[in-house]
Amino acid sequence: MSETVLVTGAGGYIGAPLVDLLLGAGKRVIGLDRYFFGEELLGDTLQHPSFSLLRKDIRAVDESDLRGVDVVCDLAALSNDPAGALDKGLTHAINHAARARMAQLAKRAGVKRYMLASSCSVYGSGDGRPLTEDSRPQPISTYAHANLKAETDILPLADKTFTVTALRQATVFGLAKRMRFDLVVNLMTLNAVQKGKIFVTGGGRQWRPIIHVKDTAGAFVSLLDRAPSEISGRVFNIGTSEHNYQVLSLAYIVRESIPFPVELDIVPDDSDSRNYNVSFERAEQELGFRAHKTPGEGAREIYEALKLGRVDTGIRTVTVKWYQHLMDAKRLVDGLQIDGRLL
């Protein structure tokens, strides 16, 4: 009998391709999400016979939602540093407390494996040397702090019957169903196409490890067949050591991937102090994991999609702006109601 995998954040940038990879691997998939960005973004996946959609807030999940589930891939989160800063209390409630609770519920419900989508942002600001899973995290943002706290709470739950793993993902790039243009390679490509210019902030000397969205989704799938003794109670950096880049280098790569002249606009200073060069040797050597797609390939696929009008570039593609739009809309509607009714 095929495994049943519950993916939280199934309507997200990484969640949507992860769902498709799991279905392609013959798994039954439950896609749990609030679907703030629209469930229609899943496209044909909605009609797949092995896919079930569950529209639910991760904070409202109960044990009954997890009965019959073999694996939880927990990706539900306010998904980047700016979004995390929008409402710090909400970020901790979702990215930390709700995911810690999800792992506890999964264990009580008899789920065999739980995988947490964490982030290399927990490293914060390094000294230029490659940071390993044993390096001391120095989170800067609310988003990074919440991820680290979630790791701290879920890893001790591992035992002989419950496999727990945290995946610290590099900065993601590439084309996806729920497109995001608030990530460095994607935004550079969009600006190159729309404005003929790439903006490099902070001088561009900051280090960022990067990974294609399908490669990082593939990491979750690859762990399904690993023995618990190899991965349980452990943290893995997910990326490829060759794909640590300074932001300025990424700008040059994107520029060279676009088939027309593009100007670089380098701004010496900004408020972003994140700077981390990460080692991915543990996943590469112990799990045989390799990320394959390069930033140049990612920029070219986005360029082609933009050229053909096959990708949304509106407000929904910038996470913090979309969340702020929803919050503003709710305040407007609440203020117009009389006796609990709008109309």
Task: Throw out a few tags for this protein.
343 residues, alpha/beta, Rossmann fold, seven-stranded parallel beta sheet, 11 helices, 37% helix, 17% strand, globular
Largest sheet report: 7 strands, parallel
The secondary-structure element order is: EHEEEHHEHEEHEEHHEEHEHHH
Strand fraction: 15-25%
Q: Please state the CA-atom Rg, rounded to the nearest Å.
A: 20 Å
Q: What's the CATH topology label?
A: Rossmann fold
CATH class: Alpha Beta
The overall pLDDT average reads 93
Q: Total number of helical segments?
A: 11
Pick out the low-confidence regions: none
Overall 3D form: globular
Number of domains: 1
CATH H-level superfamily title: NAD(P)-binding Rossmann-like Domain
Topology, number of strands: 12
If you had to describe this structure to a student in words, what would you say it looks like?
The chain is an alpha/beta fold and 343 residues long. The protein has a single domain (4-320), classed as Rossmann fold (3-Layer(aba) Sandwich), CATH 3.40.50. The chain has eleven helices and twelve strands. The strands form three sheets. It has a seven-stranded parallel β-sheet, with helices on both faces. Helix 4 links the parallel strand 5 and strand 6 (163-169). Helix 8 crosses helix 10 (295-307). The longest helix has 21 residues, at 88-108.
List the helices and strands and how they pair.
Elements: E1 4-8, H1 15-24, E2 28-33, E3 51-55, E4 71-74, H2 81-86, H3 88-108, E5 113-119, H4 142-154, E6 163-169, E7 171-173, H5 184-195, E8 197-200, E9 207-212, H6 213-223, H7 228-231, E10 234-238, E11 244-246, H8 247-257, E12 263-266, H9 281-287, H10 295-307, H11 319-336
Parallel strand pairs: 1-2, 1-4, 2-3, 4-5, 5-6, 6-10, 7-9, 8-12
Antiparallel strand pairs: 9-11
Helix pairs in contact: 1-6, 3-4, 5-8, 5-10, 8-10
